[in-house]
Predict the structure.
Amino acid sequence: MGKKGWLFDINKCTGCHACEVACSSWNQTGSISWRTIVKIEAGSYPNVTARNLSMPCLHCDHAPCMQACPVAAISKAGDGVVSVNQTTCVGCMLCFFACPFGVPKFGAEGKMSKCTYCGDRPPELPRACEEVCPTKAILSGDMEDLERQAAAAGGERVGGPAGPALFIIR
Amino acid sequence: MTLMSVFWILIPLFIGILFIGLYRNLLVKLGAILGASGRFIPFQSVDAAALGRAYADEVVLQKRIRLRGRLPWTRHMLISWGFSVLFGFDILTALFTKYLPLEPFRSGNSGWLFLKFGLNLSGMVLLIGLLIALVRGAAAGGSDEAKFSDRPGTIFLLLVVVTGFVAQGMHFANLPPDPYRAWALLGHWLGEAIRPGAPYIGSYSFFWITHALAASAFLAYLGWSRMIHVFAAPLGRIFYSQAALREAKVRTVMEGLLKPRAEKS
């Protein structure tokens, strides 16, 4: 089974939040959003830039959230997808603090939750966020395929000790 | 070797297991988190008001559980506050009746009655919370609500509380009647109910040792089970109250992601 991951093209993202809405709608996340769109502004007038980054869980190779959980509620499946067991989770938020990207979200009911890589979605379909992205800035799939596509477009895998499963085209 | 000496050997052992559990399952993880993200936390910008609000809402009043309904909130409040106050009274009782014995805390005196009243009232509060939790857990079986149930922890704590009340009742049943002992509430009522069958010397010892060992083992269990949330959840919720720090951490990482690798080095 191939490891799953993401390819994100920063140049294509317009920050429209469609991915965030699709994720919330498909996964019924209620008041929280498993995707975070961050707008980064740089430079000074008149030479300013604004770029958007749409961040789901990056299903890291060495997921710090999993290592930080005191009750072993977070696990990594064979396809690399990291998930939170809602029955075991005690909502202590250590996973949020451990995640370099602050991905796990604290729900109103007191449990942590995060992107499941649309685990309940048929594998032949794209992930909900990917499906609705109007500029095709988000791509999901096997890491080997994504690596080839990223290399072809001049992208690279995001580094760091956690090993996030994300290729990025800047 | 007497039962009492076995007990004094096991108590430090269980407390040691608790500390090992807390060290391995919480402190090591907290250390790793702070080591990795400490650079995002400028301590001078801590929002003390938000910290206070988080403590009041999440720890004292547990408002987030209230969002799930009145019954889950009542159950959790009864258990958490019953347990905390009971634990506090346990320490005070050991301190004033065993290690620093003072006249008011001698058996039957006002201080002793106050301790017995506190122990029994908080124990009863805890008992009611545990019974609600058991019934609710059974009723919620198979539903989404079941994920909030911790049946092993509930049963374990129930064993501690019930053996404590039974042991106390048997102890009182073995003593001559004393109207002031009514301050011991459930312990007194149990004692009076079973008094006709006294003496219970052997049974009292059995229940006392069972209670003492179960209570100590429960302390050890705290560090190695979902009950560790007693320590971890308040810590996490209070840290989480610092919105500026949360955002600063994520923003710093995102800005790093936007920079090409060559520029970063």
Summary: The interface with chain A takes residues 25-26, 29-30, 32-33, 36-37, 64-65, 67-68, 146-148, 225-226, 228-229, 232-233, 235-237, 239-240, 246, 249-251, 253-255, 257-261 of chain B (CB under 8 Å). The mean pLDDT of chain B is 88. Residues 70-243 of chain B form one domain.
